[in-house]
Amino acid sequence: MNAKLGARSGAGDAGDQGPRRGWAAPKRLRSVLMQRSRLADALVVAILAVAGLLVARSILRDGFPPGVDTPTFLHLSWFTRETLRGAGGLIDPYWYGGFPAFTSYPPLSYALVGGMAAVPGVGLVFSYKVVLLAAYIGTGVATYYLARELGSSRPWSALGGMLTVLGYPTLVAVGLWGWFSSVVALPLALAALAMLERAYHRGETRFAIGGGVALGLSVLAHHMTAFAFALGLPAWVLFHYLRGPVLRPRLYKTTLLFAAAAAAATVWWIVPWLVNMLQVGFRRETPGLWSFPLSQYLESIAQTKLIGLYAYPTYMGIALIGMAVGGILQAIVAPSRYTPYAILLVLLMAFSLGEQVNPLLRVRPFDGLDVARFQLYVVPVICVVGVPFLANAGRSAVDLLRLQAAPAWLPAAASGLLVALILGQALWDAGAASQRLFQPYRLTPATQQAIAWLGQEGHQGKVLGVGFWHWDDFLLPYYLRQAVVDGWHDEGGRNWRAVRPLRMMMWTGEIDVLRAHRLLGELGGRYIAVQDYFAGESPKEFRAALRQYPALFSEAADWGEVTIFERISPG
């Protein structure tokens, strides 16, 4: 199997240090070649940007960006803006009776939005959309540069970047789940790996420091995302230690500088975050957040009917799975610079399987992971590992079939056909996802009336939202500066034990009104606002249950889709 087909000459060797000595291109020629290379890179970046904007274009329409976690990051961005303008502080008073937002959640992603929005005349939602789309496109660009740094040729690397942009798990992160922080952290983590490769294989020390800082910034955008990619670093170090004994001094120096830079960039935040986490003592009700049998996982990744649905395991696509399997096998059979990334891919897939399949997720600290996000993390790694497999697929098929008299064009044609099939499925899936995932969230007339009522009649007291699916966590502080009972990031809320039973009532539909009344009193809540936006939070069941206890909850206002109940205090 020719592991270097489609790669830059010599780039697959662990000790590659660039062009051979003994020949140097004239200075003018080198300048021309470098300029052309930069223009080609700029063209690839432009193509990836256009593709990303076409897929996610609906986000630019009027309204708030979609996604389950989107209101969370809009709130954190808004509070950051208020803090920068002197109207906020270090403690967010709108969640959990006081929430140390900047300590509890990595600040970089929402600080970018809040910082932009703090500039007079720049809108909060506009800033959010700009950062989100830039990070989404940047993930494809960073995949392209990592593939180039590993030795893939420009066309194959560009294909890897394009498949990352079009990959359904990537689109889910942007438009369905609203994993804003992970989307911001992804290109930074990929850039860190690319710079680490450059530092070691070209001996350019400054890139080891730059890579460590990039990984540190990824931690500050979303610690779990950075952690996921850092899982592959031990395998990377061990692989190059065994494969390149001559370069071990360089490996030691590169690794130490990379690690030191990453630590220096993050220690100022990690220490108070860790102290807060230990004090809060948060534990997930389900290790890894999701639990399912392996058969369900394998069935779901190929079901196109899951496109656009809030479900996990979710659809991934046969194209990506085929690239993953082929890339891993090739990297194992023919060890190369791609091998550590194949190992990382296996690790990421193992975490995405949930605690029923991977018991390691039941052990601290792995039980605190969100395994659904690991399906996002695998996409750029699949593309980096998979493009060499696609480049070699045609020749490997000819060799396997022992076609001695095969025409010279057949291997390239076979690889081209495979690429067309994979890219075709990616385009088809992205087209369907574009229609279903990126429609903006808009306030309905009933929701607008409920917000107006709370601003006029019910501005005193915290609100518990049912069926809003977190939008109340942003809308009420944003429009009214009114606090909510819970929030979103339970890991940082000190009263998460009192909030969780209320959350579980929503998710199970088993409402204990007496207990809800007591807990709401403990949490300082005065209102329960029920909206028929997300059936998964049992709004109809909650509304019906509360109406059965008029002595505990009076119906203060009703607009059909939204009903507000006021808690009646004892006595």
Structural class determined from secondary elements: mainly alpha
**Which residue ranges are poorly predicted, with pLDDT under 50 across at least 5 consecutive positions?**
1-22
* Percent of sequence in beta strands: under 5%
The major pleated sheet works out as: 4 strands, mixed
- Give the % helix: 55-70%
Broad shape:
elongated
Number of strands: 4
CA gyration radius, whole angstroms: 26 Å
If strands are numbered along the chain, what order do they take across the biggest sheet?
1-2-4-3
* Oligomeric organization of the protein chains: single chain
Number of helices: 22
User: What's the domain count?
Assistant: 2
Distance between the termini: 81 Å
The run of helices and strands is: HHHHHHHHHHHHHHHHHHEHHHEHEE
Give the overall average pLDDT.
91
What does this structure look like?
- The structure is a single chain.
- This protein has 571 residues and is mainly alpha-helical.
- The chain contains 22 helices and 4 strands.
- Strands 1-2-4-3 form a 4-stranded mixed sheet, with helices on both faces.
- β3 and β4 form a beta hairpin.
- 48% of the residues are buried.
Features:
571 residues, mainly alpha, Rossmann fold, four-stranded mixed beta sheet, 4 strands, disordered N terminus
Set down the secondary structure blueprint.
Blueprint: H1 27-55, H2 70-84, H3 101-104, H4 108-117, H5 124-150, H6 154-166, H7 168-175, H8 180-202, H9 205-221, H10 223-230, H11 233-243, H12 248-280, H13 294-300, H14 318-333, H15 339-352, H16 373-401, H17 410-437, H18 445-456, E1 462-466, H19 471-480, H20 496-508, H21 513-522, E2 525-531, H22 539-547, E3 553-558, E4 562-567
Parallel strand pairs: 1-2
Antiparallel strand pairs: 2-4, 3-4
